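Student: Please help interpret what follows.
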Amino acid sequence: MISKKRILVAPLNWGLGHATRCIPIIDALISHDFEPIIASDGNALELLKKEFSNLRFLELPSYNITYSKKANGFKLKLIKDSPHLLKTIKKEKKLIKAFITTEKISGIISDNRFGVRHKSVPSVFITHQLRVLSGNTTWFSSKLHQEIIKKFDECWVPDYNGHPNLSGELGHINDTIKSLKYIGPLSRFQKQDLPIKFDLLVILSGPEPQRTLLQDKLLRDLSLFSGEVCFIKGILERDQLISKEKNLTIYNFMTSGQLEETINSSTLILSRSGYTSIMDYAKLEKKAFLIPTPGQFEQEYLAKKLKSECIAPSANQDEFKIGMLNDIMAYSGFKNHPVDTNYQSLFSLFQGK
């Protein structure tokens, strides 16, 4: 019996977006007769354990990425945390090297984990950030990221190559990276025509303390909303908890199947403007109101881009009021432009000679 080729899939634990967008990649690996091994830490690892309980897992050292309470402190905090990040990447590389010597690994797919690669194993980097926005240091942060990307055999960008696209200037640059492949947006969901259950679906995600700050604000503000609301806190715990308060149905988290059904049966979404969420809303052709994480340049850019294209309204966290949800009527909502991702071609990198 010929054993299946093993592919290490390693998403960054920064919010849940990197983990959830790896789900269709993992599914595709399984359907193409590979054996995925999942490597991550924290909530990203826990989420994927719930989704793929029959797979093997490797716990990686944590980057421990958190936000400043103040928006303008985000970049400063990243700089302050950079020695820890560099130390973690070094640990990551050492752990991966040891793992590869004990396990027969045929390929590596890293979603924004810089240390998950090896010169003797075909290694792929997944990112939509070829340009890393950081205010007046954007050129430097982008160049640094591009140099890291070049250390991998290929870079897969989950977006369309050309227009229209979802990532804008983040995922499209003039400088050529020869290993670049646009693979189309990644979403674990499928569009379904279901009866509407909720007038508003709130989906929270992302690192603390900003997730809790937005949660507390919205729970106060939603007392002024008259329709049926489903509120997902985005807190991954062992057991799913559900509570009902007047017109609010509150979950700590949902699995992929539940979330797919809930998004499809909701009229309007209120969430962060994370790129994975945007890919999901495009796949399901939903209307959404976006609140970027304060100080996160990428989310602020994406919110402004979608607002300027009349796709989705947005507001800063401090300025948001529930009445702003009425603005949605002036926007088109997200549209899906289906693309047939050729996974057989992509995975040929791991087939060897």
Notes: The longest strand covers residues 105-111.
